[in-house]
Amino acid sequence: MTDRAEDAPVAGHEETPVAANPVQAAQPQNVSHGSRSQWLDVWDQFRTHKGALAGAGFFVFILLAVTLGPYLWIYDPTYIDIRARNTGISLAHPLGADQLGRDMLARMIAGGRTSVSVGVTAMALALFLGTLIGVLAGYFRKLDGPLMRFTDLFLALPLLPLLLVMVLLFRETLSANFGPETGIFLLIVVGIGVTSWMPTARIVRGDVLALKEREFVLAARSIGTPDRRMITRHILPNVLSPIMVSATLGIANAIITESALSFLGLGFPPDYPTWGRLLYDATDYLQQYPERVIWPGAAISLTVLSVNYIGDGLRDALDPRIRGR
Question: Which PANTHER family match (predicted)?
């Protein structure tokens, strides 16, 4: 009788199957748990914000209108038709014509293109400056004090009077060197950009200070990762959320500031339409033709409101505490 006690499994222990391929045994098993992209989760959360969806739809409509409008509506915004002056809404002029006979729809499209261009460009400049100063102040301890005092100095300045002084001092020089339209565009963009970066810098600095103490940053520093690679690889990707929210709010702030300068008569030339300039020109005819104030005023208000709603939706969608509910 053959003894098979040595072949029997020991109680309490299970036999471990031997993989046919040693490389397969060394590799971890890829088990699908239905994981999704983070951006899909962000989009799902963003869709639940009805105001953000409506704002994004309206802002896309504005972008398409100011981009494709000149190709669909053939009227020149500077063309003067004396016979059509002060006409109301008609098939030839869906938004009427102004006191010189210029088509209001064409001027609204051209003005929107200028206002949105100023808002996006000034926002990009403000985000660049704010992110640069915020990252440097948060990551390098020696630069934190001087840069934050520099930020506090700009926060203490009266921004609108400062912009007015900049326009009065440099508009003639820039207009002579770059032309009236390009010179004023550069002046307004730089003026808004260099006076709007401070909130972004403070928000980014706070996030960088928190990220410096995270485990993955400490681990990267322990293996000798240089500062430049640490910032570009580990710090910047993790502060994109506040930067994106600041971007939406920066567009709205830049559009309002440009409209205020144009309304005060210190923006673009009279023959170069912007929404603020159209609003300024229409104030003399407020009682006779109130719709001329309504069109640019409604465009400014709805565009700024839509951008603010987009910022609210992005803030909620990029917050992992809300997204994980």
Answer: ABC TRANSPORTER (PTHR43386:SF23), OLIGOPEPTIDE TRANSPORT SYSTEM PERMEASE PROTEIN APPC (PTHR43386)
